[in-house]
Automatic annotation (TrEMBL):
A cellular-component GO term for this protein: Bam protein complex
GO molecular function, one term: protein-macromolecule adaptor activity
GO annotation (BP), single: Gram-negative-bacterium-type cell outer membrane assembly
Membrane topology summary: Lipid-anchor
Function text: Part of the outer membrane protein assembly complex, which is involved in assembly and insertion of beta-barrel proteins into the outer membrane.
Protein name: Outer membrane protein assembly factor BamE
UniProt organism field: Sulfurirhabdus autotrophica
Subunit description: Part of the Bam complex.
Length: 156
């Protein structure tokens, strides 16, 4: 009887699931973060120094192709690749010729929309500053200081 029960119990125990313990994997961000806004600032004919100012120093500069800069960005969370972007900037001489890769250059409509959006915050900021000036004047009139309250109590 025990000869049948022991293998049966072992068979049932082997069917159970025990989760494995895995180590914690940190989030890894590698490369140059290149946004659509940054790419939209690039124009054909820009110099290498202007391009470097907009995008930053390239991650990869090819020794055999000095007129080609590669910008690569990877984001891994928990060991899984979430985001990967590649942008290749090609120069002819010292001037920007073309862009290749995942991040596309903006169209003229996108550029106009970005310019309009950037103009609106300036107007809003001026309105806020004007409101702050008005509020500051109201606070000074409504609230009296220590000596003002003392003079009021004396009757002057």
């Amino acid at each position: 009887m025990y000869k049948i029960i022991i293998p049966l119990v072992l068979l049932l125990a082997s069917c159970s699931y025990v989760p494995t313990i895995s180590p914690y994997k940190i989030d890894i961000q590698q490369g140059n973060v290149v946004t659509q806004e940054m790419v939209s600032k690039l124009k054909p004919g820009m110099t290498k120094s202007q391009t470097k100012f907009v995008l930053g120093t390239p991650l990869i500069t090819d020794a055999f192709h000095a007129d080609r800069w590669d910008y690569v960005y990877l984001l891994k969370k928990g060991g899984k690749l979430l985001e990967q972007r590649k942008l290749t900037v090609v120069f002819e001489g010292d001037l920007l010729k073309r862009l290749e890769g995942d991040v596309a250059a903006a169209t003229s409509e996108d550029t106009k929309a970005a310019e309009n959006a950037s103009a609106k915050p300036d107007e809003a900021q001026q309105n806020v500053k004007a409101d702050q000036k008005n509020d500051g004047a109201k606070v000074e009139k409504e609230e009296k200081g220590f000596f003002g309250r003392m003079l009021e109590k004396i009757g002057l």
